[in-house]
């Protein structure tokens, strides 16, 4: 196709700035877990946007934070390793920043080092007055020659086209790397694990969520009595402590039922098929420092 453009766009920023929310907004589907907790995204998750004259492949990276475990260290490495391979970087910051903080400075230095086309996205603009926003724009403008600086609220649909148009403008001509029907490179099993983990993140107390690992043990399609397709999914939620297990299960199993119910509703909406979901909780101490498990979160070579 003449003048068709394509490229890879990395979304990077500190923890909890709204990267996954932005990815889901741009893709128009839920491909990344969203919760108002730090370190929600663990892998570099891809989302695909197919437009009339372009295909944009997004990578949502783990938030930049100070690593204390092997898992955290791997997450930060994954984020930084995605920069050199990107055609364009979306650098996401919060509108209520008064200065360029330590985390944002580290990201900015990596961008400067790679000398990549970068679009600065200032998220959560509904939280600040216009004067403060203009001062923040001026502060960052002096630091790097951004292709554009776009103030947005990632929860509002109206900003979607502005961001996509700016990205498309900066892409080079190229082929469609994925089928135009696809919106993520994640498997159905990975999406199911993300959805279950997201519900747990949203419902559980602060000390529990980041010690959670979800593994889908079984995913099998069958016909129900009405000859409709149904997926049987069995998943285990692993946690670090026995006390966490009790919290995840909840009194009379209510918390686990709630996690399962919300995950099933989301899966049925995402997959367009009936879901029969069963979940279990097991303790797997120190999995966040287990090399075999942590290596799953590394970028493929």
How is the topology of this model organized?
Elements: E1 5-13, H1 19-27, E2 45-51, E3 54-60, H2 70-85, E4 88-94, H3 102-114, E5 117-123, H4 130-141, E6 148-151, H5 160-169, E7 172-173, H6 188-203, E8 213-223, E9 229-239, H7 242-249, H8 254-271, E10 274-283, H9 291-294
Parallel strand pairs: 1-3, 1-4, 4-5, 5-6, 9-10
Antiparallel strand pairs: 1-7, 2-3, 8-9
Low-pLDDT runs of 5+ residues are 33-43
Distance between the termini: 30 Å
Number of domains: 2
Structural class estimated from helices and strands: alpha/beta
Rg result: 20 Å
Mind telling me the CATH superfamily name of the largest domain? P-loop containing nucleotide triphosphate hydrolases
CATH topology-level fold name of the largest domain: Rossmann fold
Shape: globular
Estimated share of beta-strand residues: 15-25%
Average pLDDT reading: 81
* H/E element sequence: EHEEHEHEHEHEHEEHHEH
Q: What is the CATH top level name of the largest domain?
A: Alpha Beta
Approximately how much helix is present in the residues?
Answer: 25-40%
Largest sheet composition: 7 strands, mixed
CATH architecture of the largest domain, by name, is: 3-Layer(aba) Sandwich
Beta-strand segment tally: 10
Notes on the protein architecture:
It is a single chain. The protein is an alpha/beta fold. The protein has 2 domains: 169 residues, P-loop containing nucleotide triphosphate hydrolases (Rossmann fold), CATH 3.40.50; 110 residues, 2-Layer Sandwich (GMP Synthetase, Chain A, domain 3), CATH 3.30.300. The protein is 35% helix and 25% strand. The chain has 9 helices and 10 strands. The strands form 2 sheets. Strands 1, 2, 3, 4, 5, 6 and 7 form a 7-stranded mixed sheet that branches. Strands 8-9-10 form a 3-stranded mixed sheet. The longest helix is centred in the last third of the chain and has 18 residues. About 4% of the residues have low confidence.
